[in-house]
Amino acid sequence: MACIPFSLLGAWTCFRWSKELFGDGAGLSALVIWCFSPMALGFGAMCVPDIAATALGITFFYSFRTWLRHGTYSQASLTGLWPGLTCLTKMTWVVLAFLLLVLWLLDRKLTGRASSGRELLVIAAVGTFVVNLGYEFQGTCTPLGQYEFISTALSGEESGGGNRFRGTVLGYVPIPLPYQYLAGIDVQKGDFERGYRSFLHGEWKHGGWWYYYAYATLIKTPIAAFVLTLLAIAFVICGAQWRRPLADEMLLIVPGALLFLLVSSQTGFAHHQRYVFPSFPFWFIWLSRCAHFPPHAGSSVRKATRGVIVVSVLWYVGAAIWYFPHNQGYFNELVGGPDHGDEYLLDSNSDWGQDLLFLKQWVEKHPEATPLHIAYFGLVDPRSQASNTPCPPVACCQHFRP
Question: How many other CB atoms are there within 10 angstroms of residue 303's CB atom?
């Protein structure tokens, strides 16, 4: 239940941003696409940071867009709260500072608006304060040279346990972040450097694939979303009434694309499609323009596209309802649906033990089903569902993982 507010926040932001860009119909479409997304439904009730990171991230960029258009110090202060909260959810958003500067410069270049650099500093300062507040300011402003890093990139040692900045000028620079925040980035970087075994389409290997997340998105997203995307592309190319100022387009395209590429570039391991979910709301809002029909749009355009849009939306919603409550393990028709999903992806892409409860119910109703054999991938011992006794994660991993 603690996760539900984040799902609602993401839904509200998708609705508001799309409505402002493309009108009421598009706003409702973006709302429906978010609410019936298999990813939002599957992970929206789990104690993982992905829904919070996604909802807070898209809300920050919506607030940032508002500041760019109506810049005031009060709006900048409010906008600064969102990047701080967003960075507290997931290390993926470490790119926010870079995105903030790039989008600000792009907006000045494309619109000629002289958005105040001082107000931008206010956003950065408030965001940094919120991150430090989240860690109770523990170790804030520790000089860079006093860190002990484990990743090769930051330690300068193959085995870690050092600091490449110690003894240099940069080593004396105080880091305006909590000690454990930078240490956490270092740990995550070290994990990617060491790598783990990964699975994709029947193949196991040490490390990941650069195309893993694109592949996972292709087979775990309802095909209707791709139909709407192609339709939106056609609208943008063929109809000026569906286009928006380039600055508005860039605010949707740049953050989502950069985030997706950043995650895809980390090929030390590839386990969870949920890692790229923070980039999805930008996509949802961008394609929602399909539902926007200007008053002067020709009748032939209306008749040719409205049916396709209605069928696509119903298809999208129907897929979520049909497989509920197993949305976490949703796979589309390209791979034969969820029945064949485990042939392509494992781990959180398929199941994290929830379906063992359904298995337990089935076994209780069919005591004659003996001997019973199960092909299962996960950290939970299926026997614990019968005995109600916990199983040590390491033992489960050794016994049940390939």
Answer: 9
- Same structural domain, 297 and 357: no
- Report whether 22 contacts 71 (CB < 8 A): no
Distance CA(202)–CA(209), nearest Å, equals 13
Are 371 and 276 members of one domain?
no
Q: Is residue 259 in some structural domain?
A: yes
Mark whether 98 and 214 lie in a shared domain.
Answer: yes
CA nearest neighbour of 110 among 58, 65, 74: 65
Q: Report residue 197: phi and psi, to 5°.
A: -65, 140
Give phi and psi for 140, each to the nearest 5.
-65, 140
Residue 250 near residue 108, CB atoms below 8 Å: no
Residue 262: both structure tokens together: 């950043």
Distance CA 365, CA 271 (A): 34
Encode pLDDT of 238-275 as tens digits: 876 777 888 899 999 999 999 999 999 999 999 999 99
Range of the structural domain that residue 98 is part of: 4-141+176-320
pLDDT, tens digit, for every residue of 191-236? 999 999 999 999 999 999 999 999 999 999 999 999 999 999 988 8
Instruction: Look up the pTM and report it.
Output: 0.90
Q: Is 366 exposed, middle or buried (0-12, 13-18, 19+ CB in 10 A)?
A: exposed
| Beta bridge mates, 197 | 206
- Cα–chain center distance at 248: 21
